[in-house]
Amino acid sequence: MATLKQMMTDAYMSAAAAKVAAAEAEAAKQTLFTAMLNAGIQSETVDIGDGVELTATTVHSSTVQLDWDAIEANLTAEEWADVLITTPSPQKLEALAVVKESVKRVVTDASTEKPRKPYVRLTEKRVDVPENTPVRKRATKIPKPKTQKKS
What's the confidence (pLDDT) of residue 141? Predict the structure, then answer.
């Protein structure tokens, strides 16, 4: 039976190897993203054998950041009260902007779009299995070691 020290060492080495593999995978995906971007390819599917298709898709997205101080300063007290719960509510602000053009202008002026880092999403699809057949997913967690009962 392995000692606690050996199990800890094994777990640490496995985690370190996984970290290195993850970094290598991320670097490979970044290289793929750059190649697809340079070639003007948005999405590409290839058959990698054994009935598996792999699709690479470049993903570009952004998020909107609101300047809440500017919004509060430019809304009337009544409009601002409609937006507040205990803190400003983006959902209530959006609903108010739909019905009031003045609020929509304030929100537009106080909004900035912040691009997120683009990336490549890889999707694996089994093509030799009927669609309704359940496919077993790969385990994502390391299973806990079984403990032996003391005699």
Answer: 45
